[in-house]
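User: I want to check something. If I give you two sequences, will you return the structure for each one separately, not as a complex?

Assistant: Yes, each is folded on its own. Here is the first sequence with its structure:
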Amino acid sequence: MKKYLHIILTLSLWIGVTNLYAQGAKATVGFDQLRFCESGTVTMTIRFEGPAPYEFKYSYAGGIYSEPDWNSDVFTKEFTFDTDVTIEVFDFKDVNGVDGDVVNGLETVLIDQMPTPTISPNVLTCRKEVTLSADPGGEFTDFSWTASESGVFDPETIDKATFFADNTGSHTVTYQVENGVCVASTQRVLEIEEVATPTAQFRIVEDRICNGSNATLEFSNITGRFPIDVSYTDGESEFSSILNNSLEKIIVTPTGASSASYTLNTLIDVEGCDNTLNTSDDVILDVVPNPVVDFYDEAFCGDEANVSVTLYESNKCEWKVVADESDGSGLYFEDRTMAETKAYVNSNEQQAYEYYLLELTEINVLNESCTGSDGVLLELYKKPIISLGAPDTTGYLDKAIFFSTLGLEGLPYEWDFSNGLNINDERLDKVIVSGLLSGLNEVICTVENGTCPIVEATKEITILDLYQTTGFSPNGDFTNETFIIGGAHNISNNTFTVYDMSGKVVFQEENFCHVDPDGDPDGDEKIGWDGNSNAGPCPEGTYYYTFKGDELVKPIQNYLILKRSKP
């Protein structure tokens, strides 16, 4: 037990001694100066207390330096800087390696930059009042304005000061700027004289304008040193403009329901001399019409349309065609000065589709320079009225016939026809239908043009076998003057022969009732038998005839009666 007690007492004594050393070691850091202008040298002094030698570190400007075995009670170090820097002493230990206290171990050295103050050469003077502009030329902590002669500065700021001199003559103004421990100044010598204030009269050139248009402020009897800053108001907003000479004008855009009033407030000349005027002039503002066309890009079927517009007031108006984009027949107005009128085109020249860009201009009767307009696109589709000739046509053994049309030229049309038929419509005045079959053949033409109702026309063509009559009367009454066989022209290499009662041939013709391949009768060729033989007119009576050709299985034999007497 005594053995352990001795060990415990020894250990406690050693710990106590160690704590005694640690509590007694101290490094007190001091600096002779911590703020300089532009640059400076700092002396750092460290005073130590406690058992030496000492170990410590210090850092500055990004570097760390060590003193591992310092035996003196004082450590001195000089630093030279031209920018701000932080100096720190740390890791202080005594001879036993025990950490000691560091007092004032962290300080910052401040390097102030010298300002370069300037006074602007632009000096404003009025009467004995001088306004100067300045620039501190860098960072600053304080500034001051002083003058060599009596007077006051009011106001005075870092970048501007107004000096009111007590008397005319030469005055030296000093502008001083401080930045920490750096102090710099500049001076300006002023020759101060009495200066007259600027004056002017003004008027609005136009006494009446359209609302939203520009007006002109014109000045007269203007005095002062140019350029002159003009301050004016329209009663709601403040404005400022520069006059460079006595003839210069100011362009403004008045606002208001019916009138506007402008007041000239102050004039400030180039040297800062000012004058308050408070003179006014008025201008009447006339309404700019805002017409609205009552239809919008509307399409009409036919050659006319009723157009109308809602006017802003009971003003004058005028319609006009701005552009004809369709190369149409031309648009006309029944009365282009009416809000409601009729627009129409020449129906004889109307294209299938025409469109025109119209503009309606409304004119304020109180001020005809105030106008408003609205535009609209007018579209006109030609109304289809079509015809395919006679509604029904009958042929005999025909494979192709022609018919004329009306109303299809220039319109969008389509054909619909019976099976087996073909249409050649290269010429609408003579449409050829081929592939005809015996019985009823039907051709339908449909026109669908824009907003117009769809129009259809039907052509019915009936094809029959050969048609034969049993008599005719060539007596000059223009009725039943020739004997024909319907469809004979469709029998190739045909021969028609007429016999009298004795069996004598009185008339014979090949290609009987011939027509040309397109279906038109040949004007130079006689169609049918006119009752004459080579010897002259045949007498009334009964005759026999035969008709044969390639397509006939057997020749046709029949009789006919010829009459010449008129009923």
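And separately, the second sequence with its own structure:
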Amino acid sequence: MHRYLILLLFFITGAACSQESASNSQLALIYFQNKDFEKAAVFYKELFEESNAKVYFDYYIKCLIELGDFDTAEKYIRKQIKKSGNTLLYTIEMGSLYKQANKPDKATELYETVIKKMTADQNEIIQLANNFLTKQEFEWAEKVYLQAKKLLKEYYTFSFELANVYYFQRNYTRMIDEYLDLLDESEGYIQSVQNRLQNQVYDNIENNVNDLLKSCLLKRIQKHPDKTIFSDLLIWLYVQEKEFENAFNQSKALDKRNKEGGDRLMALGNIAASNQAYDVAINCYKYVIDKGPDKEFYISAKSDYLSVLYQKIVNTAEYSVNELSELESTYISTLSELGENTNTFTLIYNLAHIQAFYLSKADTAINMLEKTLKANILKPSQVAECKTELADILLFADDPWQATLYYAQVEKANKDMPIGHEAKFKKAKLAYFMGDFKWAQAQLDVLKASTSKLIANDALDLALLISENTDLDFDTADVAMRLFGNADYLFYQNQDTAALRTLDCIIEKFSSHPLADEILHKKYEIMYKEKKFQNAAAFLQNIIDKFPEDILADRALYKLAELNELKLGDSEKAKELYKNLMTKYPGSIYVAEARKHYRKLRGDNIE
């Protein structure tokens, strides 16, 4: 029992001392921050002598220097040099003191002593270099590592550490050389080097290190054409810069030189496609396809090639009739070659979409999808996708009843899945097209709580459109809304001329109806689809001028800015519009994207 009491007393006393030490440390810092260095010095000296923690020593010496008491500081450092086993660390402290006391020669003499007395102890070397770095003595940190290279010879090169020192010195050429020398020794460091360069190349204020790195890499590639690692790093750099054309040329050259199988071109194609660099992605896949059907990546390349062509058409609307026909022929020949199965379902799906919505071959697309469903070759998730696309095409082909049946089947079989929510939304939109607003509204109210954010937002937008333009005090409100729903349906069916006539009819008959801004926005969508961008811009400007307080105003402003930037080639106008959006509609959901575009157009580095 007596022993237990002694132990308990020991722990209580230790805890109390620890609390007191922490309290004194906080108090010392407060005095230091308030520039009461005399009081801070008393605490830091006491704290260091209690704990021997060097951080307290550093603060104590700083206090003495701030007080101009160099003599006391010098005596105290000498005491630590005699007392401490790590004399070199405190020798650096003495050198730093001399430098601040305007005795540079003495400081240099001591720093040189540190370099001469260094041993082949890796931990000590790093500790000494870090101490120089904290004092911004970059030249001496470099000397520590260069001397360490001699001491440790081949055991450890300190390349990462030296590169870091050169980064602080802004000696980017030597920094890059260290990294490249390291890769010359061992290609296994590639990921670490890329991670370092990701920060150091794009964080520099001069914003030209990337060009220097490219230049250094090209010289290395010319000097050591057998070293693939330098080409790999250059390709990586091109991808970071989104210079996909250069990345493609370099990858192709590397593939040919090393007689590779096309795997690096496949990887680059995927990256380019995800960044909407469709032409480069297409070239990557074509290169692999041209290697022949007996090669490993032939089937994948064919499938991805068609997928990217499809994305280019659907996402950019940049295509000709000949390109569409050629794409259809390539899909058909590829399916004939590879067969219709779960692995080629995406090809079937995309072909049907192109035929129905772009080539006016809805019947052909419907027959193909129905045949695919009857063949029982698809996974359950693919069945749902196939039925949803089939319903979309049936609706496009003016068969809403059959479309509703397929949407209902998908919804029933996938109640808690995103595809089920999508089918339910499309069924509600079909009802909106047909003028059954109450039923559509009931479905949309349920979908507002969908776990799919995209579906929930779409449901909210359509629900607002219906409620704001049907729950009105005059009898003809629903008539105008029915005409608008019909115009929207005609637009969905690519009957743009008929859609425009219907929209004009609403304006003629119901000139004061609150649908006016929605009508302008629908006309913008039609003009944009038809690539009449000046007309599209005029309709957006109309919304901004006439309805600045309405719900579509911020969207119209963002779309107009985007139109000027991407289609009309007026960057200054786009920049002005993005700025207006951020100023006039700070709560808009488009502000974050507008800010990115604005900064990019202004020339900011936003990597």
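Because they were folded independently, the notes below concern the second chain alone. DSSP finds 32 helices and no strands in the chain. The longest helix spans residues 2-33.
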